[in-house]
Amino acid sequence: MSGGVGRTRTARRRWSATPQVSLVMTVLNEERGLPAFLESLSAQTLLPDELVVVDGGSTDATVSILDSWGAASAVKTRVIEAAGANISEGRNLAVERAQHDLLAVTDAGTCLDAGWLDALVAAKRDDVDVVAGFFEPMWTSWNERLFATVLMPLRDEIDPGTFLPSSRSLLVTRDAWRAAEGYPEWLDYCEDLVFDLAMKRAGLRFAFAPDAVARWSARDTWRGYAKQYYRYARGDGKSGLWPRRHALRYGAYAVGVAGLLAPYPAVVRPLLALGFLGYCAKFFRRAWRRRPPGVRATLRLILAVPAVVVTGDLAKMAGYPVGAAWRRRSR
């Protein structure tokens, strides 16, 4: 108890020397993960001045958990109920209702490192409009560990000059949000990437804060993982993102299938196998860097990498044309 009080007092002392920040986010049926998120928020070395949450119509105890936490917290908490609002609509509404012009953005399914907001604010200078935080995996099951380990980038893979931040770890000015015309409310997935690209096109200046870490869990089932990446790719198709990247994926798998059906399999298939291993190299590297203790567990993780990659690719190849067709109809 005394440690928590000390953290709060430290945050209050430092707050007077920093700009005021509104933390904005959306929620929908987050009863399970919300307590851990709120605990990590309470433990911040720098507390936000306010928390503005838009609930999209939760049917569980999400709103009551937020109300109870807000009543006992030093952070002013506002919960806005907007049944049916998607993520973009909820974030835009939260920004509109926020009192301050410096806006931190995250998701309720995360756990924030204690210095998360502190690191974001420290990177905000007069010549910076957007601060990109980072994210790391956390897990409670083997599947969560497998998917997160293989798919989430390592910090040394990030090029700060081209990195497009996730809105689970982000700091923006209100002017930057306006310049991008807010989050795209017509889009259900990949909305944060479209928002990032709009800010890039507006000429806004980005900074990277690698120590502003928000931790989150991957899906717990293969079905859930495939559905998630199907939706990501459908969002790419709807927004017209990465057409060349998706075309290359279709081409690579077409070449692979053609190679498997080739009349000289003894020659072609080893080359295909080597090519596929090269394609998976960065995923093997992530698995090795995040390997679990023990030889058997490490081997199990490494051997599962190709299945994770292929499942995700097939899900993307199914989702992208659905989104592209939607985009053509919408035009």
Keywords:
8 strands; disordered N terminus; 13 helices; 53% helix; Spore Coat Polysaccharide Biosynthesis Protein SpsA, Chain A; 331 residues; alpha/beta; 2 domains; 15% strand; eight-stranded mixed sheet; single chain
How would the blueprint of this fold be written?
Elements: H1 2-15, E1 21-27, H2 34-42, E2 50-55, H3 62-72, E3 76-81, H4 87-97, E4 102-105, E5 111-112, H5 116-123, E6 130-137, H6 142-151, E7 170-173, H7 174-179, H8 191-201, E8 206-216, H9 222-239, H10 243-260, H11 265-279, H12 281-289, H13 295-330
Parallel strand pairs: 1-2, 1-4, 2-3, 6-8
Antiparallel strand pairs: 4-7, 5-8, 6-7
Helix pairs in contact: 6-12, 6-13, 9-13, 12-13
Structure description:
By secondary structure, the protein is α/β, with parallel strands linked by helices. Helices cover about 55% and strands about 15% of the residues. The chain has an eight-stranded mixed beta sheet with strand order 3-2-1-4-7-6-8-5. The termini are far apart. GO terms for molecular function: glycosyltransferase activity.
Helical amount = 40-55%
Question: Considering the protein shown, what is the CATH homologous superfamily of the largest domain?
Answer: Spore Coat Polysaccharide Biosynthesis Protein SpsA, Chain A
**Low-pLDDT runs:** 1-16
Sheet with the most strands? 8 strands, mixed
Find the count of extended strands (DSSP E, 2+ residues).
8
Q: If you consult CATH, what is the topology of the largest domain?
A: Spore Coat Polysaccharide Biosynthesis Protein SpsA, Chain A
Separate helix tally: 13
End-to-end separation: 57 Å
InterPro entries: Glyco_trans_2-like, Nucleotide-diphossugar_trans
Domain Glycosyltransferase 2-like: 22-135
Transmembrane segments: 270-288
Family: Belongs to the glycosyltransferase 2 family.
